[in-house]
C-alpha cells in the first residue's frame, strides 16, 4: 500500500491514454479544446466575480495544464487538479460551494479518467486523498457542502472504476487468448518443420550408410566417419520425434502425409501464378500455408470476391502476394489469429508479412521469405 501511495502522490506515471492508437491525436486535441474552454470560463468568471488582482493566469494555467497532462499522465493531471482545488478556494472567495459549476466540469472528468484507467489500489488511494482534500477545502469555506460534494465525486469515481475494470478484464482475456493461439500455431509450425527436417536427416543417414557400397576404396577412417555420421543422423531423428511427441496433444494422431509445397498451391487456387523455381521445402511449405490462410480469410471476410495469387522470386526472396477485391458482408470469426500465424511462419525464415486494406475495398497480403543460400 505504501508503494501504491508513493505511486499516486510522487512517483512518475507513464500511463498513456489511447497508447499508440491512431485516435490519440484527436483525443489530445479534444481535451485541449475542452480545457481551453474551461480555462477561459473559470478565469473570466474569477475576473468578473472577484477582485481582478492578476491571479487569473494561475487559474488559466491550472485548468489548461490539467487537460494537457491527461493524455500523458492521468495521475499527474489529478495531482495538479487536486492541488488546484486549494488555489480555487483561496481565489474564489465569493463562491459558497466547494466546487462551482465550471469547477465541476474541470475536476470531475479528471477523477473519472483515473477511475477508468487505474487498478483498485490506486483508485482507493486517490479516493482517500480526494476525500481529505475536499474536506480541507470545505473547511476553508462552508463544510455544509462537503457531504454532497464527496458523495458525487466518489460515486463517479466508483462507477468509472467499474467500467474500467470490466474493460481491463476483457483486454486481459483477449491477450491471453491471442497468446494461446500463438503458442498453438508455433507448435503446429514446429510439427510441420519437423517433417521437413526429418526428411533431410533421413537422406543424410541413408547416404552415410550406403557410402561404403557406392564409393570404392574408402579407407578405414572414412568408413568409421560415415558410420558415426549415420548414427548421429539417426539419433537426431529420434530426438526430434521425442520433441514432436511433446508438441502433439494426447488425442492428436501423427500426420503421415507429405507436407505441401509450391507445387500444391495451384490445388488451392487454380488461377494462381506460381514460380517454377527450386526453393527449399521449408520455404515452399511456408508459402503454401500463407496462401492457404489468405484464401481462408478472403472467403470468410469477403465472400464472393475475386482473389489473385502470385508467387515469384524477387531479389533473392520468395514473394507471396494474395489480393482479393471487395466482397459480400463478412461471415465473422477468425479473431485475427490467421495473420499472427502467417507472421510466425515467415519470421522463422527471417521474412516479413504485410496485410492491409486496398483502396478499392479489398485486402492484400504480401509475404517476403528470404531464400538464403540454396
Major sheet: order of its strands?
A: 1-2-3-5-4
**Radius of gyration of CA atoms, rounded to a whole number:** 33 Å
Query: Tally of extended strands?
Result: 5
Low-confidence stretches: none
Largest sheet: 5 strands, mixed
Q: Enumerate how many helices there are, as a single number.
A: 11
Report how far the terminal alpha carbons are from each other. Answer: 60 Å
Descriptors for this entry?
374 residues, alpha+beta, Heat Shock Protein 90, 11 helices, 63% helix, 9% strand
Brief overview:
This protein has helices spanning 2-9, 24-49, 56-69, 74-91, 101-117, 120-139, 146-214, 220-247, 265-268, 281-301, 337-348; strands at residues 273-274, 307-314, 317-324, 352-357, 363-370.
Describe the overall structure.
The two termini are 60 Å apart. This protein has a five-stranded mixed sheet with strand order 1-2-3-5-4, with helices on one face. It is elongated and about 110 Å long. The model has no long low-confidence stretch (mean pLDDT 84). It has 374 residues and is α+β, with helices and mostly antiparallel strands. Strand 1, helix 10 and strand 2 (307-314) form a beta-alpha-beta unit. The chain has eleven helices and five strands; from the N terminus they run αααααααααβαββαββ. GO terms for molecular function: ATP binding; phosphorelay sensor kinase activity; protein dimerization activity. It comes from Saccharothrix variisporea. Pfam families: HATPase_c, HisKA_3. Residues 185-251 form the Signal transduction histidine kinase subgroup 3 dimerisation and phosphoacceptor domain.
Amino acid at each position: 500500500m505504501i508503494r501504491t501511495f508513493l505511486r499516486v502522490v510522487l512517483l512518475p506515471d507513464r500511463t498513456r491514454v489511447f497508447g499508440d492508437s491512431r485516435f490519440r491525436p484527436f483525443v489530445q486535441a479534444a481535451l485541449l479544446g475542452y480545457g481551453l474552454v474551461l480555462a477561459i470560463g473559470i478565469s473570466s468568471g474569477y475576473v468578473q466575480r472577484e477582485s481582478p488582482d492578476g491571479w487569473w493566469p494561475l487559474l488559466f494555467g491550472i485548468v489548461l495544464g490539467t487537460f494537457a497532462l491527461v493524455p500523458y499522465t492521468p495521475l499527474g493531471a489529478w495531482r495538479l487538479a487536486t492541488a488546484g482545488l486549494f488555489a480555487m478556494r483561496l481565489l474564489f472567495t465569493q463562491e459558497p460551494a466547494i466546487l462551482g459549476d465550471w469547477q465541476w466540469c474541470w475536476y470531475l472528468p479528471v477523477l473519472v479518467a483515473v477511475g477508468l484507467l487505474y487498478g483498485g489500489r490506486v483508485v482507493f488511494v486517490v479516493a482517500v486523498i480526494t476525500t481529505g482534500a475536499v474536506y480541507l477545502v470545505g473547511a476553508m469555506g462552508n463544510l455544509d457542502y462537503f457531504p454532497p460534494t464527496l458523495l458525487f465525486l466518489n460515486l463517479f469515481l466508483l462507477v468509472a472504476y467499474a467500467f474500467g475494470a470490466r474493460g481491463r478484464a476483457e483486454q486481459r482475456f483477449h491477450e491471453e487468448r491471442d497468446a494461446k493461439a500463438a503458442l498453438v500455431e508455433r507448435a503446429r509450425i514446429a510439427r510441420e518443420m519437423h517433417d521437413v527436417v526429418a526428411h533431410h536427416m533421413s537422406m543424410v543417414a541413408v547416404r552415410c550408410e550406403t557410402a561404403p557400397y557406392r564409393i570404392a576404396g574408402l579407407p578405414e577412417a572414412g568408413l568409421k566417419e560415415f558410420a558415426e555420421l549415420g548414427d548421429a543422423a539417426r539419433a537426431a531423428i529420434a530426438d526430434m520425434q521425442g520433441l514432436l511427441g511433446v508438441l502433439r496433444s494426447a488425442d492428436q494422431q501423427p500426420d503421415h502425409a507429405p507436407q505441401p509445397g509450391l507445387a500444391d498451391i495451384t490445388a488451392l487456387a487454380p488461377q494462381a501464378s506460381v514460380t517454377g523455381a527450386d526453393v527449399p521445402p521449408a520455404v515452399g511449405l511456408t508459402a503454401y500455408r500463407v496462401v492457404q490462410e489468405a484464401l481462408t480469410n478472403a472467403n470468410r471476410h469477403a465472400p464472393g470476391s475475386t482473389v489473385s495469387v502470385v508467387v515469384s522470386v524477387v531479389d533473392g526472396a520468395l514473394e507471396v502476394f494474395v489480393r482479393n477485391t471487395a466482397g459480400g458482408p463478412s461471415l465473422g470469426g477468425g479473431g485475427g489469429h490467421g495473420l499472427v500465424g502467417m507472421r510466425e511462419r515467415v519470421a522463422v525464415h527471417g521474412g516479413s508479412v504485410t496485410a492491409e486494406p486496398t483502396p478499392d475495398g479489398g485486402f492484400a497480403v504480401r509475404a517476403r521469405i528470404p531464400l538464403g543460400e540454396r
